[in-house]
Every structure is written in C-alpha cells, then in structure tokens.
Amino acid sequence: MADETTEVLIVGGSMVGLAQALFLARQGIRALLVERHAEISAHPRAQAASPRTMELLRALGLEDAVRARENPHAQYGDILQAESLAGPELGRFAGPFRHDPDEVGTTGWTLIGQDRLEPVLRERAEQLGADIRFATELTGFTQDADGVTAVLRGPGNGCERTVRARYLVAADGSRAAIRTSLGIGHHGPGVFGRQMNIVFHAHLDPYVAGRAFFLCFVSNPAVKGVLGKLGGADSDRWVLAPSLPPGADHRSYGTEDCVDLVRAAAGVPGLRVTVESATSWEIAAWVADRFRSGRVLLAGDCAHVMPPTGGFGGNLGIQDAHNLAWKLARVLRGQAGPGLLDTYEQERAPVAEFTVDQGVIRYLQRSGLDEAAAARHRPETTVLFGHVYRSGALVNEDDDDTSVVEDPTAPSGRPGTRAPHLPLVRQGKETALHDLLDGGFWLLAGPDGAGWQEPAAALGLPFHRVGAREPAGVVERFLTRYGVQDTGAVLLRPDGFIAWRGTGLPQNPAESLTAALDTVLHRTAPARDRP
What are the residues whose beta carbons fall under 8 Å from the beta carbon of 268, sequence distance 6 or more? Predict the structure, then answer.
C-alpha cells in the first residue's frame, strides 16, 4: 500500500511544472508537485511570456499579476548590440515585445524573468488546491496498467514515502532523468555550446547613459554574451550570460573570473562588482522521440529543448501543460476515453519540431553562424499562433494540406487551428473570445444559428450566437475567418482550438454536435457527461 495517493504527480517545480499544477487545479484536479530544490531559482533563465502564454494566463485572471512583476525596462523591448556597455554601439533593433494586442491576439508580450513569473504561478496554483512540495525528490518509480507508484525523499531526515498516482507528468527539465529512465531518446541538431548566468550587483547606470533597452548583446575579445538589468530603477542587480568555451561550465570559474567577465562586458576595467551567484546551461536543440510512455507524459524541456533566441522555449512548455491539463482532467473524470491522451503527442510533437527549428534559425542568425538560415525564418505571429493540429481530438475535415502552421492573420477556421480572435458582447460587456475560454468547451454560432442553442444546452455547452450585439464588422469577420454560413457553428476546445466546424445548420443539429463531442473526447455513450 502506498503512503498516499494523488490523481496526478508532477515532477519538477520550475515554470512548466508549476503551470501544469495551475492548469490542472483550474480543471478541478488537485495534483501533487514535487521539486528537489528547496526554493524557486533566483536566476531569470526564460525572459519573456509570449502573447499566447499571456492569453492563457489572462483567461485565469492572472494578466495583471504577471505584468506587475515584469522586468525593469520591459516597456522598451529594444535589443542593443555593442562592444561593451560603455563601448561603441554595433547596432540596435526593436524587439517584438509589445504589450498591446493586435488583430490576432488578445494581449501582448510580458518581459518577465522566470524567477519573477514562477512565484505568481505557484501562488495561484496553491490557492486553487495544488499540493506543491519543494525540497522533495523523486528517487524512483514504477508503472503498471492502472497507474504509477513513485518513491519520494522529503526534507529534514530524508525519509522516503511512496505515492500512488494515476498519471505522472515529467517536467524535470533538459537533463530529463525520467525520460532517460524510460529509454526515450531524442533527435535534432544537438548541442551548440554552453552559457553561464552570472547574477551580480554593480552600479552601471552611468554607462547605460539614459539609453532605453531590454537586453544588451556584448561582443569583444574578452567576452561574448548578454547583459540585462534585474532590479528596479534604483537597483544595481544585473545578470550577464556569457558564452563559454567547449568543456567549461560555471564550476570552471571562480568569483574573480566572474568579476573579470562582468568588467569586460561593462567596458569598465575597475568596476566594483559583487557576484551573487552563477550557474550554467547548454545551448542545444532537440525533440524527444516520444512524449508518452504508458502513464508517464513529458512536458517542457523534458520533451524539447531549443536556443533561447526568440523566447519560445519556456512558453512552448507552458502551452504543453495547458494542452495536457484539459485532456487529463476529462479522462480522470470519466468524461473522455483514455485514447484522448494519445492526442497530446500527436498535437504537441509536430509543434515542438517546428518551434525548435525556428529557435535554431534565430540563434544562427543572431550569432552570425549562418546568415542563410533567414530563408527559413517564419514570422513571429505564425510561430506563436499559427499551429495546425491533426489528431484524434478533432473532427478532421478532408484536407490534402499537411502544413504544421498557417498564417494566423488569414486564418482558415478549420478544425485543429486556434480560434481566431473576436471581440464579443456578453452580458452587455465587450469581452475577447479567448478570455471566455478558461477550461471548458464552447459552441459559437452564426447570426442565424439559433437552432444550435437547444442542443448546446442539452450537452452542457456554453453557447454564444455572434449577432447584432457585437461591434460593427464582427459578424462578417466571424463568418469569413471561421469559414461558416450564417447558420453554421464551431465547437471550441478548452485550449481555444477549433474541434469541429458545422458550416451550416444540419437536419439534426443535436445528433451532429453529440457525434462531434464523442469523436473529440474518444468516448462512448456511457461516458457522456457535461463536457
């Protein structure tokens, strides 16, 4: 007998694991998360929450809390290139990091370090009932047809306890101990190099000289890396991320070595520097060969790793967690067949392949290693919002197009694509469509689609008919971007992707809608319940 039980055990308490706990808790699944480190890391690591990530957090009411913790100078978004902070500028380009929404998204980037975002995720997950335990390590696990039995070593005297879980989510990072123990390999370009993070204190404002920038790429004979401010306007806390030579890591550098690197990056030989901490990590690119092994599912850096250029990596992991949460919840509640979990890999693996490639392209361009890579560069909006899923969690339409992405500024509205942004009026208030999608399915119908309302109600589906109450032009936008007639409807999944499309009103809308849900949820009649 196990010492305790849980429905989902999450291993890894960084950004992706905490997001997984949060999204599951929002679905009513109170997961147990364990993290071997005693505290959230003080290193910023991932530096930005993308518009798609912010869209997901906004639907949970967290946008203001996240933006309140954004990095200093976040509003600037510019990237500076220089020999050193005090030396000659080599170039400058405007980053894509805007706050304002555009025609595709409901919100914009937030430039927030991982060290600032993780406490927000943890606090909200715990408020919703997640059990989060730091200083607790997974020492082993076995699985069978019904679940996973894990052995955990806790803090203090290090005593071990067994936990029985129905599923295990591996969010244990790029070292991927769980993935390796399962014999799951990976493929891709591999390791490009190693980078160190040095968190330090120094008075650099005189050398900033009033310039507005988010990050400064420095390049000189002594150091190549990225410099950024961590503290507020009156703070002297910064981070330097220098590239390391082959075979080196942060343990190869003493405190004075770190001070020398900071001075070289600042361009100030006698600068007073206090080093707070240092760590290092690989710049690599790969994708796991599988995202699932029985009752164990991989998410985040355990499943895919990419260079930091573009800010895609951590955000992709958060979106893994969101995709997985609603599927786990419905399987655990008996509202969906277990085959629904097979669609996690079907959907997320192709997206990971594409996004890793785009991260590599940006890294090769930014580092000057391969200018020809620009030919394969896809627009940021496409990378963030243009994913096209093909899986068993959709009612797929006959389609010869096998593209992994489409241009989200000219959406097709077909199943497997993210629902195009719409401003809708609910209870007399204008609300963005994706703000409504906080964990359940929705049915969205055209202006003459009243015939869908009763079948939606019978199935427990929230329903909205896009009509005269909406702002000018919204009805036409809905019909065009979703590819339906005035009497048509679309079924939206909890993650905001289109699950099924009825271009018009069929003879028996209740039968069509029920069949669509049965297909998406891999269920038979006895499993039907409120979706």
Answer: 84, 85, 86, 207
SS (H, E, C) 239-275: EEEEEECCCCCHHHCCHHHHHHHHHHHHCCCCCCCEE
- Tell me, yes or no, whether 451 and 522 share the same domain: yes
Per-residue pLDDT reduced to its tens digit, 324-373: 999 999 999 999 999 999 999 999 999 999 999 999 998 888 777 777 77
Return the closest-CA partner of residue 422 out of 433, 431, 412: 433
Reported as a single tens digit per residue, the pLDDT across 130-184 is 999 999 999 999 999 999 999 999 887 778 999 999 999 999 998 889 999 999 9
Q: Which of 333, 360, 381 is the C-terminal boundary of a domain?
A: 381
Residue at token pair 């997985």: 324
Q: What angle do CA 75, 76, 79 make, to 5 degrees?
A: 140
CA 98 and chain centroid, separation: 18
C-alpha closest to that of 493 among 346, 351, 340: 340
- The H or E element that residue 57 is part of is helix 51-59
- The radius of gyration computed from the CA coordinates of the chain, to the nearest angstrom, equals 24
In the listed set 354, 381, 408, which residue is the last one of a domain according to the structure?
381
Alpha helices in 60-157 (DSSP H): 63-67, 114-127
Which residue is it, tokens 């060969």? 289
Q: Do the domain assignments include residue 263?
A: no
Give the range of the structural domain holding residue 365, as residue numbers without chain letter.
Answer: 4-69+110-186+288-381
Q: Are 425 and 471 in contact (CB under 8 A)?
A: yes
Q: Which stretches of 271-398 are DSSP H helices?
A: 313-332, 342-366, 380-385
What pTM, to 2 d.p., does this model score?
Answer: 0.93
What is the rounded CA–CA span in Å between residue 293 and residue 282? 26
Q: How far apart are CA 205 and CA 209, in angstroms?
A: 6
Residues 116 and 20 in one domain: yes
Going by C-alpha positions, the residue among 127, 116, 125 that lies closest to residue 66 is: 116
Q: How many domains does the chain have?
A: 2
365: nearest Cα among 374, 357, 356, 376:
374
By C-alpha distance, which of 443, 525, 458 is closest to 492?
443
The CA-to-CA distance between both ends of the chain, in Å, stands at 33
Judge whether 390 and 343 are in contact, CB under 8 Å: no
